[in-house]
Amino acid sequence: MAEMAIFYDASKCTACKGCQVACKQWKQLPSPLTADEFEFTKSYQSPLEVSPNTWIIMTFDEVDQEIGVEWNFMRRACFHCSDAACEQACPVGAISKKDNGAVVIDQEKCIGCQYCTNACPFDIPKWEEADNKTFKCWLCQDRLANARLPGCVTTCPTGALTFGERTEMVAAAKTALDDVKARGFDKAELYGVDELEGMHVLFLAHRGLEAHGLVRDPKVPDMIEFWQLLKPLGGVAFAAAVGGLGLSYLSGIGYKREEPDEPEEVEK
Amino acid sequence: MTNHWIDIRNSDVIMAIGGNNAENHPISMKWVTEARKNGAKYIVVDPRFTRSAAVADLYGPIRSGSDIAFFGGLYKYIFDNKLYHEAYVKNYTTASWLVNPDYDFEDGLFSGYDEASRKYSKDTWQYQTDGETPWDTEGAFAWVNAPGTPAFTTPVAKTPMKDMTLSDPNCVFQLMMKHYERYTPEVASAVSGMPLERMLEIWDLFASTGQPGKAGTILYAMGMTQHTYGSQNVRAMAVTQLLLGNMGMPGGGVNALRGESNVQGSTDMAMLFHIIPAYMATPNATVHENLRGYLEKETPSGGYWTNKPKFFISLLKEMYGDYATEANDYAYAMMPKLNGKNHSHIAMFEAMNEGVIKGLFLWGQNPAVGGPNCSMERKAMEQLDWMVSVDLWETETAAFWKAPTIDPATVNTEIFMLPAACHYEKQGSVANSGRWIQWRWKAVDPPGEAKDDAEICTEITLALKALYEAEGGAVPEAITKLTWDYVDENDHVDISKIARAVNGYTVADGKLLSNFTKLAADGSTACGNWIYSGYWNNEDSMEAVDQPTGARDDTDPTRKGLEGGMGSYLGWSFAWPVNRRIIYNRASCDLDGKPWNPDKPLFEWTGTEWLSNDVPDFGNKAADGTETKPPNATAFIMLPEGEARLYAQGMADGPFPEHYEPFESPTDNALSSQQNDPAVVIWESASLGTKENWPIVMTTYRLTEHWQTGQMTRNLPWLVEIMPKMFVELSIELADDKGIVSGDNVIIENNRGAIKAYAMVTNRFKPFQINGETVHQIGTPWHWGYTGSCSIGGIANDLTPNVGDANTMIPEYKAFLVDIRKEEV
After folding, report:
1. In terms of Cα–Cα distance, which of A114, A109, A161 is closest to A140?
2. H helices of chain A, where?
3. Do B760 and A25 touch (CB under 8 A)?
4. Which of A41, A77, A187, B535 is 20 to 30 A from B627 in CA distance terms?
């Protein structure tokens, strides 16, 4: 199967959050049923961050201007990297890269160790305490298998989200970049074409990466490389045995600072 | 919409003003995006920096309520720089028509004003005429002689006097230029608060569509209409589009973005008190004492509305069937009538408060949150004996007795709740903003005891009929003789029978009419809504899928001899009237029938025939359908003038849009000493405040994430998650003044109430410089209330004034005064 990709063109996005809801609807991801469950976020961005039950959010960033503002939107969800830190960090092979480019967590295998949440340079995978599992966008593998577009792409009213073979999406992104530059967006950049050996979500940030909150030159953490050498030695058993040593390094390298649960607890 | 959604892609310049299309009509952005691929520019004019503004090419901030200053300035800019479409203005508008020399305008008042009644006498507003032409009742109007047609005195057309050089001081063009001399860029900027340079940039860009062949569209919504001069705001846009030659053009038009999926349909079907189906005046006992009186008063001398007797009598035939005969004025006496008083939303609640209205039927309505000054409206509901709420949830209105300000022990109203089916649980037609009447099929059965509205209506109507049959009453025939045979063998509603009645049929054989051109005034045809005629005209099937309304051909074929699909999609559903996608489409061509824009031709006259990409609204064929008619200059067939009105005598508050301040305004009117629209009715209960007490302008709006009064969304966890709380947006400058930071609980208040909200402090709101002073504006959504399972919050409409437009009584929701403070803890 060819590698596939979503292309998100921020210049066409109105941040309607249709994608946010469509994702939750397709996956039947719950939201709290009672009033006052959510904090006021002080922003149109809500929730403020992706979570085990919310796999996409739209982000809103304001830059003041003499008249009005620049109101910059971005789609925040898994980037489906080719050089996927989460997949490399997973001690039990629960995260795999599919032929179509999607990076998928198998929750049956996930032991809730949160190495992936710490390894991800974008802090995307989110661990859920109740099930001790980690969740993130899986690029609608079930829909793709049935010749359907990803849920978020299906619902996008403006054409800001499109989906297709990655080579075609890269070409479309380059054309779109030329178009917005011609419209005067000098700082416009593409993202995901080369980053982390190529992502399976591509971005056109028409006001530049920083304005849209994208991480420039993302890297797989060095420790992951070291971990990669050790991992073939023994999977889960290894993780259990050596837990206190190498893994404690791993848990410190990402954005999160919570203590991982002991893998043994999950296995019982 | 004069045009339709897809047609936005044909625009060269798109201006959203008084509407927030990206947020409230997300699909519109698909077509804006398409247009921009071809180089179109997108302008957003709004008091706040919206998600529409975020993607616009040009954004202009404007103080709520100052739109006519903006448009008046634009007219002057167009005149001063000769940017109008001259041939179009001269031939397709009333620019050349001469007006009574006694017409005058001085210091905010047009001639004929009577201060005591707050009304204008319009005698001096009339055209100059120099001849009269009675209807030719032997020729074109021979139908008035057909047996069965009620007798009425036919109108006489007056011959207008014109000056095609547009130089006579009394011609509309000269009067208009004179009227707007005061609207200099500096004045327009000072009144509206839009920075001068940005305003000129916007004017220049939009006026560029005045070049022949260019098209600009205006997208608007409630930000334009919900003012005491809302109708004049709409006129202001129409006049702009006429000066620039944008009406009738693909990519042009004045396009009302309807705020609910079927609000176009409900308006077509007479949701409003002053019209009956298909935009005819509601009979008024004090004006139309009998059928003859109605026909004489309501039938114009020229234009397509001369057929109104056919439409009206066919409606009566549908309403009262065999009971409606020539002898009894087609049961005209049975038809409900107005009593000369105002019965708009605001007046209805005044009447409730006075105990005149004893019962209230709410059908998907939630005025306890949606009405103006709605704490007063909730108070008025306490006077009701009974209330019926047909809805999906227990709305704030159904639960008005639970309102924080009401003591349930004092409320004696009996409340009935009828659970309704939601949109996917019933079938029927839905008319979108572009007038496409699309059939929507039922997907699932409604849960529990919930029923289709049409079924609820049928059950009630049949029960009422049985009661009046059994017990009689005052004028029982009004109910007992009413047609209600839209049922199956088990007396359940049969929606296809309603559709047949709406489309119209021949009374003698019950055969469907192909369209409204077949309607007669002699009682031989019946039709529930003439503009819909043709949407359900296939006699061979009772199924929607076989009817024009159910047609789903998604190809947009190139019509004979013309280049390219125009996005008309004539085989997809049915657009009223007669499947016309762009109305006043004759105006898309020049006098010789050549398209102004040869690259986007709707029509073209070849010298012997018309090529077309739409359904023409001009007489391109002789009455017998055989002979093709060459072009003439009558581009606006619905008007007696045949030409579009730059000057409208029909308006209650003046033939030209004139700037007045909102009833609660932070400033004095800089354009005249008339502070407010002089023809507006004022209700005491509005408790209007002054800028001294309430210095801050407030406006209300909707969010993408929520819907109307919130019942459809505040009960859905997914939607609450993406916008969980009621909030108020305010500028950093105002927040600093008031010691407020983002996330604070604040109180917003005025004479009518006080509400709580979370503060969202943002640069998207900025102070305005208005007539030399700093004016702050804040805004809140109006989606919150006190019922709803996932999110409750302050009711913005507790603050809005119940003062209405001079012409339509639409409340001034969009501009009023408040103050804001941090909540004391």
Report:
1. A161
2. 18-27, 85-89, 115-119, 141-145, 151-155, 166-182, 222-230, 235-242, 246-250, 263-267
3. no
4. B535
Which of B46, B202, B718 to mutate against chain A (most A CBs within 10 Å)?
Answer: B718
Report the C-alpha gap between B610 and B603 in whole angstroms.
Answer: 7
Q: Domain containing B691 — which CATH number?
A: 2.40.40.20
Task: Find where tokens 């008084």 sit.
Answer: B18
Q: What is the 3-state secondary structure (H, E, C) of B740-779?
A: CCCCCEEEEEECCEEEEEEEEECCCCCCEEECCEEECEEE
A121 with A146, same domain: the answer is no
A21 touches chain B (CB under 8 A): yes
- Give dist(CA B479, CA B461) in Å, integer: 8
**Considering A176, A205, A234, which residue would you say is the last residue of a domain?**
A205
Query: Chain A: nearest CA to B192, how far in angstroms?
Result: 14
**Residue A71, domain extent:** 4-27+46-80+141-205
**Candidates B9, B721, B762, partner chain A, best to mutate (most A CBs within 10 A):** B721
CATH of the domain at A166: 3.30.70.20
Does residue B234 contact residue B225 with C-beta atoms inside 8 Å? yes
Which residues sit opposite B420 in a β-bridge?
A: B451
Q: What is the pTM (predicted TM-score) of this model?
A: 0.95
Cβ contact (<8 Å) for A62 and B33? Answer: no
Number of domains in chain B: 1
Tell whether A148 and A175 lie within a shared domain.
yes
What is the structure's pLDDT at B604? Answer: 93
Cβ contacts of A46 on chain B, cutoff 8 Å: 721-724
Phi, then psi, of B739 in degrees rounded to 5? 65, 35
Over 50: is that where the pLDDT of A268 sits?
A: no
Residue B474, number of CB atoms within 10 A of its CB: 6
List of chain B residues whose C-beta atoms are within 8 Å of the C-beta of residue A76: none
CA atoms of A83 and A198, how far apart (whole Å) = 8
The answer as to whether B321 is a domain residue is no
- B274-278: long-range pairs with CB below 8 Å, 24+: B274/B338, B274/B343, B274/B344, B274/B808, B276/B315, B277/B315, B277/B528, B277/B529, B277/B530, B278/B311, B278/B315, B278/B529, B278/B530, B278/B531, B278/B532
- Comparing CA positions, the residue from A170, A99, A87 lying closest to residue A136 is A87
Q: Which residues of B touch A11 (CB under 8 A)?
A: 55
Q: Are residues A147 and A92 in the same domain?
A: no
Interface probe with B: pick from A13, A17, A75, most Cβ of B within 10 Å: A17
pLDDT of residue A261: 39
pLDDT at A239 exceeding the cut of 60 = no
Chunked mean pLDDT (size 10), chain B, 825 residues: 97 98 96 95 98 98 98 98 98 98 98 96 97 95 97 96 98 98 98 98 98 98 97 98 98 96 94 94 96 98 96 98 98 95 92 96 96 95 97 96 92 97 96 97 96 97 98 96 97 97 98 97 98 97 96 87 85 96 96 95 91 88 68 90 96 98 98 97 87 98 97 95 97 98 98 97 98 98 95 97 94 97 92
The CA distance from B444 to B466, in Å, is 32
Give per-residue pLDDT as tens, A56-108: 999 999 999 999 999 999 999 999 999 999 999 999 999 999 999 999 999 99
Q: DSSP letter at A11? A: G
Q: Find out whether B46 and B40 touch, Cβ atoms under 8 Å.
A: no
Count of CB pairs separated by less than 8 Å, A with B: 120
Contact check, Cβ <8 Å, B51/A47: no
Task: List, as ranges, residues 129-188 from A with C-beta within 8 Å of B.
Answer: 157-159, 179, 183
In chain A, what residues touch B791 (CB-CB under 8 Å)? 35-36
A67 in contact with B, Cβ within 8 Å: yes
